[in-house]
Design goal:
- This protein has 218 residues and is an alpha/beta fold.
- It has one domain: Rossmann fold, CATH 3.40.50.150.
- Helix content is 27%, strand content 31%.
- It has six helices and eleven strands.
- Strand 5, helix 2 and strand 6 form a beta-alpha-beta unit.
- Helix 4 packs parallel to helix 6.
Length: 218
């Protein structure tokens, strides 16, 4: 686990980049003289994957992260904690209503850059983003792996990582879940990603989801 993520009282936490402030009502905890935010696995698939035994957290301090599907800032704010003051989180969100909530989070987190855009069309926001070390994706779209690959081709450094939360029921509400996961992972493999880790189920924190870590070797 990296320096900005700790287990405190058996809870996953991140070192708070905005001390004294919470994002979604999470608990604030003290550890070795620093303030940490509890990372709720029922509210964040990334935290759920860590609780389920994720071995590799490729997001590190000082990194540049492209976050697709930043929503109101729950998980993206924890990513902001992890990369710290010298890192950047480019937060792409499609919904104007949700973006209003995200903007309030970004006000106290200068390393979060909000971008109102559709992740399906990365060419429309390429002027705002440089090369990134990691792409984190959590979107409710049918072509999830393809969207990730399209963004990786424009932004992800060679050797960089992708963290993909696959939402099976957003892809197909009738097909067997394991088959959906397999098909999405195969798209990644055929597009230059080497799959490093796959948390096949996020239960009991979330159902019909898996978390995939891939390295871009194209």
């Amino acid at each position: 686990m990296n320096e900005n993520i700790h287990f405190i009282e058996k809870r996953v936490t991140t070192k708070n980049l905005a001390p004294g402030k919470t994002v979604y009502g999470e608990r604030l905890l003290q550890y070795e003289g620093e303030e940490y935010r509890e990372w709720d696995p029922y509210r964040s698939k990334f935290a759920a994957a860590i609780r389920k035994g994720l071995k590799q957290t490729p997001i590190e301090p000082k990194m540049r992260v492209l976050y697709l599907g930043a929503a109101s800032g729950t998980t993206s704010s924890h990513v902001s904690d992890i990369v710290g003051e010298e890192g950047i989180v480019y937060c792409v969100e499609f919904s104007p209503r949700v973006m209003r909530d995200l903007l309030r989070v970004c006000e106290s987190r200068p390393n979060m850059i909000p971008i109102l855009a559709d992740a399906r069309f990365p060419e429309k926001y390429r002027m705002f983003i440089g090369p990134v070390d990691v792409i984190y994706q959590d979107i409710a779209q049918p072509a999830q792996a393809i969207i990730l690959v399209d963004n990786a081709k424009l932004f992800l450094k060679s050797g960089g990582y992708a963290v993909l939360a696959i939402k099976a029921r957003s892809i197909d509400s009738t097909k067997e879940i394991s088959l959906i996961f397999s098909e999405e992972i195969n798209i990644l493999k055929k597009s230059g990603f080497e799959v490093k880790e796959n948390i096949e189920s996020l239960k009991p924190f979330d159902k019909d989801h898996c978390m995939v870590i891939g390295q871009f070797i194209a």
